[in-house]
DNA sequence: AGAATAAAAGACATCAAGGTCTTTAATGAG
DNA sequence: CTCATTAAAGACCTTGATGTCTTTTATTCT
């Protein structure tokens, strides 16, 4: 019921980049890792994936770093979940019963499906930008260090 | 959004014991493991835990095996989840944002809390016995082999 | 008591997620 | 062109969930 660490790093990383992009064109991995208290090299892997998937832009070399693109803030959280690699086993029984499906539902099946659909729709309709409270002065604290 | 394999083994194991207890007083690990297509020794560990936690009764030696007790079918799924060791991090942000709580909620906070509470209450109110469809002739297939 | 049976217990093996360290490639400044 | 800088890539380590194998303990039957 809680997403992976990798997902958390990705989300917070993107939010940090978006936030600092208001002030400067690029942020470096070093700064992000320190500010978010996240293992630097591991974060590097996550960011690389985000770039490859078109969520962020990166530039190598001096004055390089990460920045957002036009679509970054419109990307739904569900996409981030896919990218950070939860197989999202929709369709398989939460309780790991075999042969539990719409044709042969277990007694909880309907209720579980309803809850799942609500999750899915919440995650699909919420976009990264929806979590970015630029107005809120200490928003950075929500994503930064303890 | 899907529980651990260990949880699945525990649930299916208990259901299998409850089901066969209608016919014979005890079932052996061997039979359960084969019928459920589950690794025998690993299942042994899970069953041992269930016995220690009072979910099942076990007897060693010839004609020994596992059986249910008076309360087994009244145990809520939430208890099985605790026993099979999900820390159930209620209270921590699903999105892994820091400092996201009722005082300083992220924009999704309320919706997520609502969904979580629904899950919690479903898992607390559904009892093991609720999943046991003795009336349904091929119920065994739901928990047994593929 | 002794043999057979079955769970309990404990020592390892495997695998994926998460994390660290080093090397390579790209880019801008002088 | 060369150098410093920074992301990308790859090799390896750690840890927890899962799985296997062997030994011990309790029980029943003869």
Can you give a write-up of this model?
2 copies of one chain form a homodimer. Chain A has a two-stranded antiparallel ribbon. The two termini of chain A are 22 Å apart. With 146 residues, chain A is mainly α. Chain A has helices at residues 5-20, 29-36, 40-52, 77-83, 109-125, 140-143, and strands spanning 56-59, 65-68. The mean pLDDT of chain A is 90. Helix content of chain A is 45%, strand content 5%. The first copy, chain A, has a domain at 5-87 and 128-134: Winged helix-like DNA-binding domain superfamily/Winged helix DNA-binding domain (Arc Repressor Mutant, subunit A), CATH 1.10.10. At the A-B interface, α1, α5 and α6 of A face α1, α5 and α6 of B. Chain A binds a DNA duplex (30 and 30 nucleotides) through α3.
